[in-house]
Write a structure and sequence with these properties.
The chain is mainly α. 66% of the residues lie in helices and 1% in strands. Strand 1 and strand 2 form a beta hairpin. The chain is elongated, with a radius of gyration of 36 Å. The relative contact order is 0.08.
Length: 546
Amino acid sequence: MSDAQETGPVLAADGTPLKRSLSRALRMEKLRALMLIAPLLLFILVTFILPIADMLFRSVRNDIVSNTLPRTVEVLGEWDSAGDSAPGEDVFELLHYDMVIAAEKKRHTQLGTRLNYEQTGISSMFRRSGRRVDDFGEVYTDQFNDLNPAWEEPATWVEMLAAPSWIEAQGVWAAGDQSAPEPEFVLRDGVADALPDTADMYGEFASFIQTEDEDSPTEEEPWNVVYAALYSDLMEGADLSPFEGTTSALLNEAAAAIDGFETVSMKEAFIDADDGWGENSTWSTIQRYSPNYTPGYFLNSVDMQLGEEGPQMRPDNEQIYIMLFKRTLFMSLVITGSCILLGYPVAWLLANVSRKSANLLMILVLLPFWTSLLVRTSAWKVMLQQQGVINDILVWLNLVGDNERLILINNQLGTIIAMTHILLPFMILPLYSVMQTIPPTYLRAAKSMGATNWTAFWRVYFPQSVPGIGAGSILVFILAIGYYITPEIVGGTTGTFISNRIAFHISSSLNWGLAAALGTILLTAILLLYWAYDRIVGIDNVKLGG
């Protein structure tokens, strides 16, 4: 055998280098293993990762202002909020355009609700204005129609603003099978340059008529705001050269008469609808929350707000969330401690009695899992009330007087008692699984060497049960900090958790952004506590037995 053959690579049976063949086989094994767990990974992604990502996104997302008032927001950025007055007429004219569209689409109330989180009273202002905003341009509609009745005809507007190709396609659709969707409206080329506001508003009108009303622009007279937009374009000296025939004659007639039209100040119209439109604070709020992303939800979550000079604390009478976070953390720790104190003896008993007795006791421990959480919580509400079972027993034993019954419900004590009972099995089971693995011979050996019962327990048995305490504590604490049903029923005003506010904002106030921010802070707090626990105790020391 030559030196080259002796020093060459080792070959596999198929002639390829052995190293390459082994690498290929290893990759195939990894790929097969990945395919086996792919359904589980997909399930975790859909049910866990994506919801958390969506929550994080909602906590900073704030595009409702810019989507509802796009034209207003674009020019409002140039307004100086440091002054004492509202913006000028030009901003209110664009607000008129945006509000008419928002009111037709029923989006103005959603925007009002969002901004009302930041400034009380804005919600009602948007509702009142939305009911009247369509009438602001009616004076222009009447004057155009009085000038020439042709302006009342939908065909006049279609001929002036619609693309010839759309008119032809719409005619074919109208004469044929109307079960098919109507051709989507298309503006005439060049009309957006000649009559920009008119084209914009009529395009919005035509799109709404087709999509929301399921009707045709050829059969509906435009909104009043379209007439107001045409008046504005003609007053700006619109170039009418692209128009021909009857349309050109109508527009030139209107342009010649426009100076004699009665005008409406949109600023005065809005302020007449609601005085709030004339206040600097209203517009400052709209301006601050016009970006698509905002820290406002997170600031609200820590009792702060986005003021004119940046983040600032809310008034003392409006601060609630920091107190709720502190209460949630404190009560969760107390509940965890209570479960340790009550669960440790039970787990020890389960681990040291005969198997038959242990099985019977285990059934009793697991029995609460077979009963509805709502039923168990409601039962505690009955037992803890002043005329309930516990107070009746205390009175019967002469431990308290009949007129001095204890208040055990609708407070922190009631929440701690009920949640300790509910979460106790989650502490007992990890403790029991660890204690079951501790050989009883260790205690006997310690006693044979002169240790007392307490010394043998504290120096030998207890250190070996610490991993079970750690596992149970993490489980109980994480469950407790996110509970909301039990605190809602038995907690009253002083025993509720931050999770109750999260549930309120999701189901009642519909402030999902604030709920997402609160949830994100709660999740972050849990992760930080988990990290601290790992640094102090060591997560490797936590186990469920074995």
